[in-house]
């Protein structure tokens, strides 16, 4: 009795469908028949193959073919390592989305959490401390003192808070008539968000608002680090679950071991054939050699 045939799609039937799947084997190049893919340097593969030929010293065409196959598998494994490394770097450095923050929202600052996360994860401890120092100075300058700002105010900003100084430079340049640095403490401006006032006071107020989430860092530094670690680990885990890189690595490892085993068998067989057997033959000749 004939068994019923299992239904199969037969693959895409239209030209557009065939074109869409034409490069499936080239996503990682692990299963591609072409050894050197576009963008790769053939000379690098040749150097790798020459090293294998030097190390294994094949004696005939069969061994040469096996050594070549080992070089091809190794080339694909190196390519896969590059792809995997690039993928994870891209994943780690990609800005976070608001949706990704929900599982650790309770560990993040209540204000501007998304901005804080995307800025903080790339900054060193020294850079974070510099921002906190700039916030302290900006807070003290956000209200004009009675009698105006002291004469050393601009020097204190430039030397003690470079981050704030850069922010003020950018803000001053946005006006139709850019405000010179020497006039920051005295020039009156109109700000769309904060209204009328002295430029230095309004710009420092904007700086404090821009980095509002950083004030939270003073008292929640360890909690913040925990949130960043969890976000990164979650990203990596999701990527590993969605990727078949592990299976491809396993396939290439098995292929390498099979090919290496066959090469060793070929070499052992050749060595056994070339072995000269020494055996006793007669009383007159103590030993004779027979192939």
Secondary structure blueprint with pairings:
Layout: H1 15-21, H2 42-56, H3 61-93, H4 98-101, H5 113-120, H6 125-141, H7 153-160, H8 162-173, E1 188-191, E2 195-198, H9 199-210, H10 212-215, H11 221-242, H12 245-274, E3 277-279, E4 288-290
Antiparallel strand pairs: 1-2, 3-4
Features of the shown structure:
single chain; 291 residues; mainly alpha; 2 domains; two-stranded antiparallel ribbon; 5% strand; disordered N terminus
> Looking at the structure, what is the overall shape?
elongated
Could you estimate the helical fraction of the residues in percent? 55-70%
Number of helices: 12
Element-by-element helix/strand order: HHHHHHHHEEHHHHEE
Report on the architecture of this protein.
This protein has twelve helices and four strands; from the N terminus they run H-H-H-H-H-H-H-H-E-E-H-H-H-H-E-E. The chain has 291 residues and is mainly alpha-helical. The chain folds into two domains: 40-109 and 220-274; 124-219, no CATH class. Helix 3 runs antiparallel to helix 12, helix 6 crosses helix 9 and helix 8 (162-173) packs across helix 9. The radius of gyration is 35 Å and the shape is elongated. Residues 1-9, 18-27 and 286-291 have low confidence and may be disordered.
């Amino acid at each position: 009795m004939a068994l019923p045939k299992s239904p199969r799609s037969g693959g895409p039937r239209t030209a557009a469908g065939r074109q869409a799947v034409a490069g499936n084997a080239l996503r990682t190049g692990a299963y591609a028949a072409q050894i050197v893919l576009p963008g790769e340097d053939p000379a690098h593969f040749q150097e790798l193959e020459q090293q294998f030929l030097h190390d294994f010293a094949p004696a005939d065409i069969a061994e040469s073919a096996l050594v070549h196959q080992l070089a091809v598998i190794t080339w694909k494994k190196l390519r896969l390592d590059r792809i995997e490394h690039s993928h994870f770097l891209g994943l780690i450095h990609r800005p976070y989305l608001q949706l990704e923050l929900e599982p650790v929202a309770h560990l993040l600052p209540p204000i501007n959490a998304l901005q804080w996360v995307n800025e903080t994860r790339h900054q060193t401890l020294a850079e974070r401390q510099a921002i906190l120092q700039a916030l302290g100075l900006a807070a003290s300058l956000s209200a004009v003192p009675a009698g105006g700002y002291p004469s050393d105010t601009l020097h204190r900003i430039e030397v003690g808070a470079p981050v704030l100084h850069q922010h003020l430079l950018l803000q001053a340049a946005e006006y139709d008539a850019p405000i010179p640095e020497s006039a920051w403490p005295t020039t009156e401006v109109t700000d769309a968000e904060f209204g009328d006032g002295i430029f230095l006071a309004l710009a420092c107020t904007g700086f404090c608002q821009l980095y509002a989430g950083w004030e939270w860092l003073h008292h929640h530094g360890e909690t913040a680090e925990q949130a960043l670690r969890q976000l990164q680990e979650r990203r990596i885990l999701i990527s590993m679950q969605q990727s078949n890189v592990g299976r491809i690595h396993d396939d290439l490892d098995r292929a390498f071991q099979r090919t290496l085993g066959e090469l060793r068998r070929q070499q052992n067989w050749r060595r056994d054939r070339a072995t000269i057997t020494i055996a006793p033959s007669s009383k007159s000749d103590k030993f004779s050699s027979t192939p």
